[in-house]
Amino acid sequence: MIAWIFLFVLITTDVFPGRWKQRIKSPVVAAELYFILSFYFNTGHTAKRHFKLYGNSISLLPLKVSYSRRASHQISTHVLRILLEEVLGYEDVVLVSDDSGLSVDKALQTLTGCDNHSCLSSVVPDVMINTEVWVPPGYQYNKWVDSRLVDEAGTISTHGRFGWYLPTSFVESLWNESRIIADNWRALELQSVLGQLLCNTSQLNSHINITEYKRSCEDIVGCINGWLHGAKCRDSDKHCAVLLADFPDHYGSVIRQQINSLGLNISVAWLGSELEHVISRMEGQPFLLLNWEPNTVSRTKQMTRLSFPPCSASVSIIKAMTSQLDYYNCDFPPSHLRKFAWRKIQDNAPDVYYLLSKIYFDKDTLDILLRKHKNGGVI
Ligand SMILES: *[C@@H]1O[C@H](CO)[C@@H](O)[C@H](O)[C@H]1NC(C)=O
Ligand SMILES: *[C@@H]1O[C@H](CO)[C@@H](O)[C@H](O)[C@H]1NC(C)=O
Ligand SMILES: *[C@@H]1O[C@H](CO)[C@@H](O)[C@H](O)[C@H]1NC(C)=O
Ligand SMILES: *[C@@H]1O[C@H](CO)[C@@H](O)[C@H](O)[C@H]1NC(C)=O
Ligand SMILES: *[C@@H]1O[C@H](CO)[C@@H](O)[C@H](O)[C@H]1NC(C)=O
């Protein structure tokens, strides 16, 4: 069924009922889905249903779905919600603001209400379904599944990966003019490259609104007023390039460790929701960006990912996320993007679980939806 989205995203139209535009904050995606669904199901009025949890008594519960700031996650969550409501007829689907998906440990804890897999808790978790959990290669989560706390419902798309990016035109011109290979972190040790990536601090400050992410900044050692200065930039940042990033909860503590363990002359500026606005006004000036696949940013400007040293077997990004030391000294891993659900979903609402297990976006479809998402404007 999801494959039909691929056909219909190509159709543009603005004749969709107003109620859809109010209900869904990603109007373009929603309008297209409404179109597909009305076409293929023509159901008119689906019988209204609730998620029933069978225990000593029967409780009617909302279906709580994780919703983060990542555009790809917003798309898959909206698609799931629309299908749950309009096809299966569930009345009470709630999107819960939850940033746990980048840390599989935290995501599994959130989905179970448990600290670890040896847990007999019967609490109803804050989030019951997460459509995009980043699972690094080799990470073992089977104990959670074997303990019947969660189910793993397959991948949502091809892999996801964070990285440091430069505009491709800048990388090319450094090669053409100076024979500098700039798609490698070593380029950030060259004065001639760093010198071109300095930014006007006061101008950036005017875009920083730290109330957007105050708590996640406090979690990162050295994050002050939306900035993090690498060890070499503390006294004076006149030799330091600026890494532009959105929110500190996007691996901010791992970035701090990369900067300090590799000894880079880099400061980080977290620009929150203003990031895309700031880089859209760079007008040919080169800049250094924290970004990831799949995301909307790399689609507007052609960006090239810098490679970092490969990780030795003993270094784990999961450990790095809670480390206060300068432990992580290597590249971000390519992660699997997996769907997980609280075990009681499959036990009590097998149709919901079946639907979740069937949702998948191939790379091209996701790229189209990300472009639409960006142009349609979301939250
Ligand atoms: C699991 O967490 C509980 C506390 O929530 C703790 O007492 C127990 O030792 C932990 N078990 C393992 C295997 O880590
Ligand atoms: C670099 O050189 C190649 C081949 O000579 C050319 O195609 C490309 O446009 C140049 N790029 C820039 C940014 O100068
Ligand atoms: C930085 O930007 C501010 C405001 O736009 C400007 O007044 C100032 O001269 C700039 N500083 C530098 C060093 O370019
Ligand atoms: C800063 O962010 C907060 C929380 O998102 C928002 O309420 C406020 O309007 C923002 N302030 C400015 C000046 O944009
Ligand atoms: C990095 O910063 C230090 C000052 O902390 C400076 O001495 C050094 O030259 C800088 N390195 C580069 C490549 O600019």
From TrEMBL:
<feature type="signal peptide">
    <location>
        <begin position="1"/>
        <end position="17"/>
    </location>
</feature>
<protein>
    <submittedName>
        <fullName>Uncharacterized protein</fullName>
    </submittedName>
</protein>
<keyword id="KW-0732">Signal</keyword>
